[in-house]
Amino acid sequence: MDLLEYQGKELFARHGLPVPKGAYASTADAAVEASEDLGYPVAVKAQVLIGGRGKAGGIKIAKDSAEAHEYAGEIIGMDIVGPHGEGPFRVDELWVEAGSEIESEFYASVILDRSAKKMLVMLSRMGGMDVEAIAASDPDALVKEHVDPHHGLDLRQAEEIVERAKIPGEVADQVASILVKLAEVAKAEDATLIEVNPLIVNSEGEVVLLDAKVTIDGNALYRHPELAEIAENADLDPQEKMAKERGLTYVSLDGNIGILGNGAGLCMSTLDVVAQAGGRPANFLDAGGGSKAEAITDALEVITSNPEVNAILFNIFGGITRGDEVARGIIEATRTIGLELPLVVRLDGTHSEEGLALLAEAGLDNLHHESTMLGAAKKVVELAGN
Prior knowledge:
Oligomer: single chain
Largest sheet: 7 strands, antiparallel
Number of strands: 19
Strand content: 25-35%
């Protein structure tokens, strides 16, 4: 679960990390009221789950109430496209923040390194730009250090990271303390990503977290009721919201081929094989083990609600899942929602022969059967026009 900037900063503040004063607003009038309380200048910041807001016009500095009202009115309702073409993301919320005089900028993050099964701390004296750009322009400027999962990040290790990153001595102690606290936040809140870019030194020599990008492990939300409430109110992708309501595991992607499988591993393999065949998956959808006809119908309704999808691949290997139940779901959904998109079905395992017989009897003109995963991937790519 990704947090908006203001939610991440509220989380930081609860753990004693230094963040600028700010206030939430959803209207231009509320933004002016918040600005008056904070004192000018203020930063009026769009709250969307994407980077590159400043370049897109989603962050503006207001010097007085007139500008605060003007800028808030411009930002609310605007669509922001991410730096790599993500979105667009509509802006419905603002964070109004006290202005900061920036003397220097750093980059800091704590990320779950799944391959190492440890948290990875990264620090750079070059902030305000993407970490990829930092690594490309000056690889030595990005210091990386794994954290022992039993002992966490202690101050000595943090000080060594700060020294290797060549952080100026007058703020080195502050930065080291912040790294320790960020690692503590990651552990306490079950975060898989914490990124602060920029971590600034202001005109008073104080190190402050000027941004907050935080991702919480959704599987751990039962331990964090206050975060679970945020998740319930999250502005999800329309298909992801529909899938959540129906108990389906779904992730939106940016392609045009709908994917439905049973089991996370099989779904991931299907995405890879479709990409290998030259296609662009539109989603990851795991209908789960033991999928009944109703679940298959729900899954198809979610997939086809995405207007970008122009072909669908079923890759089902029956263990607990029965092939005849899957077939009934395909037939029922096709007739109920008037499904006309090309369907490519690879069905194997438990009761697959019975399922294939049902599909043959149904005589669906838009259905194509393939016996192998690679064959199915090639066929759906062909039908999708990739």
